[in-house]
Amino acid sequence: MADQIDQKAVKELLPFLSLNARGDVKSLALDYILGLSGSDSGKNFLNQNEEYLRSLLELTRDSNSNISRDAFSTIVNLSAELAISDKLLKFNIIEPFLSYALKKSSQHADKVAMILSNVTRTESGCREVLKVTNMSEECSFYNIVEILCKEKFNPSAELNYLATFLSNLTQLQESRDYILDRDRCVIQRLLPFTTYSASLVKRRGIVAVLKNCCFETRSHQWLLSDAVDILPHLLLPLTGPEEFSEDEMEKLPPDLQYMDDNKERECDPDIRNMLLEALLQLCSTKHGREVLRKFNVYVILKELFNWEVDEKAKKSCENVIQVLIADEPEPSMQDLKQVQIPEEVKKKFDEEPQTNVENL
């Protein structure tokens, strides 16, 4: 708790957490605060004393790169706490931070992307972002997706946490509508990243975006059409090296036929689970079930089920298999989200899209 730290000593540091303070003492004071931000007692103290948050935000603009780096690092630690991330929003950080993250020359853009992903774990944080993206061309949704999909955009940053940030935004209907806009060709740009090997964070974030978009049943027919062709991109990470009979193989999507002997499945169980949850959502409509059956998805999931060791992912795999092998419901019950079904099954379809950020 806060009484576990020397509050008097910490308060004496506040005057040195200023752009106008002498460089050496400013660096020492900030280093101490950075250490505090890694402990529960330190986070509690800084949360209760907003003047430190204000000073830290000021120091992110310091001309000394080491000072601004440590200020950003401290805010990364603090924003991992929901109470503090909500408080940071009161300082109107979204527009300057998002603008900074999307600049090619920003040296600490990765840290800022992490902060943005932390402060958008809540719906209120996401709504603050959309206020900015709707008003600013520089910080537009288009630019976020454009930069996320562009390799080596910033030579000083990987920007993988922009994917987590984007997945958080898809909690909101407006964000999902943008990604699913048929004239913008956004979701098609994200699909190749389901097998992006260079970053687990980026891959996980984009799979979360796709899963959340699969909650939109009115888009299922389009998502499964040749215009998007989402199914192979969801299935490829779940497919192993197993051989199938010629009859079974020919029914699979062309991209999933004749896998190499060294084909490996997605290594992250959380990503596998999200991919399976996306497939389950596609099964909520008659058209989705028909397409998954037509392309023999069952045989891939059967092998996955036998291979899977993660309990949660295995259960999700079983859920999809059960829907695919079940008899088709009567015409009046073909949209599984609109009919009376057992509560435990209904929950699988009706859970709202969620954030996918863990505390950093």
UniProtKB/TrEMBL annotation:
Residues 101-272 form the Protein HGH1 N-terminal domain. Residues 278-330 form the Protein HGH1 C-terminal domain. SUPFAM superfamilies: ARM repeat (SSF48371). Gene3D superfamilies: Leucine-rich Repeat Variant. It comes from the Eukaryota. PANTHER family: PROTEIN HGH1 HOMOLOG (PTHR13387). Belongs to the HGH1 family. This is Protein HGH1 homolog. It comes from Stylophora pistillata (Smooth cauliflower coral). The lineage of its organism: Eukaryota, Metazoa, Cnidaria, Anthozoa, Hexacorallia.
